[in-house]
Amino acid sequence: MAAILFGSISTVADTSELQRRAFNDAFKDHGLDWNWSQDDYREMLGANGGADRIDEYAKAVGDEVDAAAVHATKSEIFQRLVADSGLAPRPGVADVIDAAKAKGVKLGFVTTTSRANITALLSALEPHLGGDPFDLIVDSDAVDTPKPDAACYLRALEQLGVDAAKSVAIEDNAGGVKAATAAGVTCIAFPNENTEGADFGAAAETVNNLDQRRVVSLAVSEGFTE
User: Fold this and answer.
1) Does the pLDDT at position 46 exceed 60?
2) CA–CA distance, 150 with 122 (Å, rounded to integer)
3) Would you call 33 helix, strand, or coil by DSSP?
4) What is the pTM of this model?
């Protein structure tokens, strides 16, 4: 059996700018005079983990903050923004999901974000995706080490009962690509608005939209299915 594994929220719907806005709004709520520009934010996206990103920035500017508390506020704001934003799936996502289901290919959502963020996203996309299309969701609580460590992908493969050689990952950032390939999973890079231009050399290919025939053919034509 084959699997297609979506690697982050922004591989399904491009929420990258909503994420940045949520960070900046959270900084205001906590009395911080920080403002991450789009260029600032793009430079930070080489690594995964919002709380770590806040902590590292605080150290860089010489401020002491409760990074976990700021990040919790950011997540609450982000969930509200997602609910009110009129999000739609990224180009080709719905077609890939429909084609995978038609071919009996398993679908996984392998993220380093919280289950609450995932729930907010899927609720917002319900009219387009018909609710929760995934056979498995791996969130930030599922493993101890986040991407670029391979732990989340290894867990997904184990839970789905699928070999790495029978799986395809879709990732939007360099850390996610490293995590997928470290687990032995073929990876398609699908950059979001703020990760375009990143180094995706480890990916099998980099695309601006998902072609369901191409994505599913990686499972069907190359022997990834039973």
Assistant:
1) yes
2) 24
3) coil
4) 0.93
